[in-house]
Amino acid sequence: MQFAPVLHAEWLKIRTLRPLLGALGVLFVTGTAFSALGGASSASEPEFDPLFTTQFGVHLGQIAAISFGAMAVSAEFRGGALRLSLSAVPQRGHWFAAKVTAIALPALAVGLLTALASLFAARATMGSAADGLTAGEQARAVVGCGIYLTLMALLAAGLATLLRSGVATLSVLIPFILIVSFVIGDAAGTATDFLPDRAGQVILQQTHEGTPGPWAGLAVTALWTAAALLAGAWSLRRRDA
Q1: pLDDT at 184
Q2: pTM listed for this prediction
Q3: With contact defined as beta carbons under 8 Å apart, do 154 and 90 qualify?
Q4: Rounded-to-integer distance, Cα 211 and Cα 235, Å
Q5: Least confident of 17-31, 158-172, 194-208
Q6: What is the residue-wise DSSP string for the chain?
């Protein structure tokens, strides 16, 4: 079977499932709103980073992106949906590639739109504090944020395929991001610079102190995502539908 019709079928699934569209909507609203709030309240802080402030909403937006990726896959493990999908597309790798692409494309589109809206919203509330940002830095933040959110959605998709549960995936990833990175991370040394969220978010910072640079940090997140997708693909091939 050709790839295009399989991808179209997977896109129809995403488009017709309201919780998935709702997650993308939450990603845009929360990302933009919290970036605007961050711009209004962060300018007076001693460690103020104007570039990161323009994408401050990524902290909550990434939870919506993770939820989108996890739910898009976990829906296949309810009610025998995966059996029907694999009956139509017996090549499991072919089907999984289409599923991943169908998740990545809307996540990237909404991620880029959210990052651009966040930039304008934060600049409006930051006022003159944003005047020092260059066009190149702002473009890096917008493109980097869109890619980062896409990678987090795909990381969740790969883990959901491995665990066969959206709830289990969210129970692992969300506490990991909210607790390990921000509570334990600062006390654990430079090793935490290579965690998927901390490494990827370096691209949103005007200046950084960690080991990986902006694009190298995003590459680290991409490696985590690739590992999760490979693990998910392995599980899909090895286990019964």
Answers
A1: 67
A2: 0.93
A3: no
A4: 33
A5: 194-208
A6: --HHHHHHHHHHHHHH-HHHHHHHHHHHHHHHHHHHHHHHHSTTSTT--HHHHHTTTHHHHHHHHHHHHHHHHHGGGSTTHHHHHHHH---HHHHHHHHHHHHHHHHHHHHHHHHHHHHHHHHHHHGGGGTT--HHHHHHHHHHHHHHHHHHHHHHHHHHHHHT-HHHHHHHHHHIIIIIIIIIGGGS-GGGGGSHHHHHGGGG-SS--SSS-HHHHHHHHHHHHHHHHHHHHHHHHHS--
Structure tokens at 166: 């959206």
Contact 199, 96 (CB under 8 A): no
- CA dihedral (13, 19, 23, 25) in degrees, to 10, reads 90
Structural tokens at position 137: 């830095």
Residue 38 CA to chain centroid, in angstroms? 20
The C-alpha atoms of residue 206 and residue 194 are separated, in whole angstroms, by 18
Residue 48 pLDDT > 90, yes or no? no
Cα 2 from Cα 4, distance rounded (Å): 6
**Whether pLDDT at 44 is above 70:** no
Q: Which of 25, 32, 29 is nearest to 56 (CA)?
A: 32
Task: Name the token pair of 141.
Answer: 């933040």
Instruction: In whole angstroms, give the CA distance from residue 42 to residue 69.
Output: 31
Residues ≥6 apart with Cβ < 8 Å to 128: none
